[in-house]
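=== RUN LOG ===
request id: a7f3
mode: sequence -> structure
chains: 1
length: 766
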Amino acid sequence: MNVLKGLWDRSLSRSGGPDAVMERRGGGLPQGRWDQAKDLIDLFDHQPKGCLILDQSLKVLGANPPAEKLLGVKAGTLVGRSFKEWIEEPQRAAFSQDLLGMNGDRDYRGSLTLLLTDSGSLEVDITGYRLTSGHLALSLRGLKEGAKTRDFLHSHFHALQLLIKGSSLKEILHGLVLDVESSNAQMLCSILLMDPEGEHLLLGAAPSLPDFYNEAVDGIAIGEGQGSCGTAAARGQRVIVEDIQEHPYWLRYRDLASKAGLAACWSEPIVSSKGSILGTFAIYHRTPTPPLLEDLKAIKAFAGIAAIAIEKNQALESLERSEERYALAMEALSCGIRDWDLTAQRVQWNTAFYTLFGYAKGDFTEAAWSFTRAVHPEDVEALKGSLKAAIEGQDLEWQSTYRFLRQSGDWAVVHEKALIRRDDKGLPLRLIGVLDDVTEEHQLKKILELSQFAMKTVRDAIYWIRQDGRFVYVNDAAVRASGYPRDELMTMSLSMIDPSITPQIWEDLWATLKKRGSIALESVTQMKDGHVFPVEVVANFMIFEEEEFAVGVVRDISDRKKIEMEMEGYRRELEKMIRLDHLTQIANRRALEERLEDEWRRAHREASSLSLLMIDIDRFKDFNDHFGHLEGDAMLLKLAEVLKAGLGRAGDFVARYGGEEFVVLLPKTLGDQAMHVAESLRSKVEALLEPITVSIGISSTLIGSQALQLEVFSMARVKSEVRELIASADEALYKAKANGRNCIMMEAIAGHLSADQERSPPGAAA
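=== RESULT ===
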């Protein structure tokens, strides 16, 4: 059934009959139906043509003022009388038969002589239409009216027919324009509609104007000098332009009008019942033409009809949306519906309720509180208390959110909103509740709340930054970290709190971020008081609502940096410890091997010499046996101090090789020079550490430039030649021991030594 037509019929049948509809000023319509019916009633009352509503016996159920005036009766006295009273006896039977023979596809059109109350008569044209309810709608027009007036009245009635039939706004406006044009062949009409923003006019109907013209004016701006229609819409007043080519309003549209063959344009604003501009109704002529008085009356009337059509279309769209929602709810397409008869204490549920929660019809009885068996036990008492308070009070609305058990066994979060209908004394009659499963929305809301909570409480500062480096959002942690008030911080840019980010650096960072999507780096934050602290930044490139942002999470790493510095100190100490001999506090064997390899590589790179002294305490076991191990350890410490003190160059290196053996490494030292250093050390030990003496073996190598080859720097080659250097010194030490101790012997590495292979200082035992 057509919505508008159905509304008319339902308004008649549900409001106590047509009498109550027509007696609306007396409050005849029941509560809840008036708002839906009054718009059509207003249209019925304001038709310039006489309109009647008859039942099957031709009894008058409703009449508008023009009909009462036409038949010569007082206002309000026509309803209830038989229309046959005004029909001459010979015509009654045939007329009644023709009227009652109408159906949905067949209208009535004819002429009839009516008997007036003043004993006169009037010949009228009658147009009839059967409503869906079965009632008859008649339109009466006296034949004494002029031809143009008759045509205009026909346009009014045609518009009413289209509205009652539920035609679209496009059809109604199109039909109205064609009807007006048919009344005068010189007229070309158009209807333009206001756009939602109220800034432009859009094409509504202009079937007789050229397509190129309609395309050009579709979307014309509203304002002074924007042709007749744009100006009329801006002013809210009729604009008459008798000669388009001479009028300043048409300056920018003269060529367009000339091409379309239009010479005059009269435009009437279409005004709603509330005074707002809905559009314009325009009449064009192909020759410069001034309007007659009846033309001005007609264009105003046409604009009024268009206003009714537009407003009714808007109301229809609103009604259709409302009825669609209602139908969806009641037909189980959306929400669950609870219909609670508070007088009989019975509850009915629609199909949607059962579908929504997976139950079968009949799983819940009509008992008022039976549904609470599926309400979460923790929510039952609060729900009952809330409902009872609303029902027993004077509330007209009630809503609550609670948990409801699905048939599957899991809990849904339900939001129920209800209207409470009461009688004139305020006693509750009915509660109509709409139940929505808002589980997902509830979860999303909780997630959003958690996100907002996290953004406010997270310790890391979060900045949203535009490409120009300015902040668009900062969280509470950022405010705390910077020391700036939020309002002041929002006016600043990144470089103002991170002085290390220059414009060029920021440009490079933005390009990298946009390319990679995310970057991580360490930087600093400078607070308002000037304090600077280190930060770790993780930035992500994001596009939100077509705008590009860098979203940075900034963490204060002051504590971490402090720990890192402490750990670096510990590491250095540890490195020192693992390369230090615990007893003598000089380098140990591990440190010696690393240093020896480094110095060997250096000697090869620089084609220089390298000497190594292997030093051993003579008869140290006898010393320990005689004086004890504590004294032995003390002697080792003293020896280490003498050796360190006896070296004169910063690059010389002394280490404990193991037990009572020590090694002295002499970079850039030839054999003769090494011999001199060794003799100096031996003499000092003999003089300072009596009764201790030492034997020394020397190994020395001289590397020429011809030996500089890449393969010498391989790990295996380095270790091999280092071992050879140590072995050579050890061999020399062995010979020194065999030579009577407290002496020095030298061993050369084959092919490298430039001095004698063995030497003894003057006076030393051979």
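=== NOTES ===
Residues 479 and 486 are 6 Å apart (CA to CA).
The domain at 579-748 is CATH 3.30.70.270 (Alpha-Beta Plaits).
=== END ===
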